[in-house]
Amino acid sequence: MRRLLKSLNYAVAVFPSATEFLASPKLDLTACLIADIHMPAMTGVELCKHLIASGNLIPTILVTGYPDDGVEEFSQALGAECFLRKPLVESALIDCLRTAVARGRGCHKGP
User: Fold this and answer.
1) Who's near 56: CB < 8 A, 6+ residues apart?
2) Percentage with pLDDT > 70 across the chain
3) Structure pTM?
């Protein structure tokens, strides 16, 4: 994914966990966040909820290899730009990313 996004001239930073992303000085510079639903310590949905609570309205794309309709609906209710299933279809990711960056909105509301 990093290679794909760099090939499209996006600046990319990768973090091993949600906690490390939240502690990063890059947080305020983030134009779009792509997060996995299943991460250690904090899930992608929990990260999205944390961003809302802290006022960081970063456009967010959530991805998962374990699709669940309930999680997808909840993610959309939170305001996630897209909910993508793995294996990712590159064109779908690119479309979501371009839309998210253009709209400049992110996880923004509660269910």
Assistant:
1) 27, 28, 106
2) 94
3) 0.89
The domain tally of the chain equals 1
Does residue 41 lie within any of the structural domains?
yes
111: in domain: no
Residue span of the structural domain in which 94 resides: 2-103
Residue 32 lies in a domain: yes
Query: 């973090």: which residue's tokens?
Result: 15
The closest of 88, 79, 85, 84 to 111, measured between CA atoms, is: 79
21 secondary structure, DSSP code: H
Q: How far is CA 92 from the centre of its chain?
A: 14
Q: Which helix (H) or strand (E) holds 3?
A: helix 2-7
User: Amino acid letter at 48?
Assistant: C
In this predicted structure, what is the pLDDT of residue 106?
62
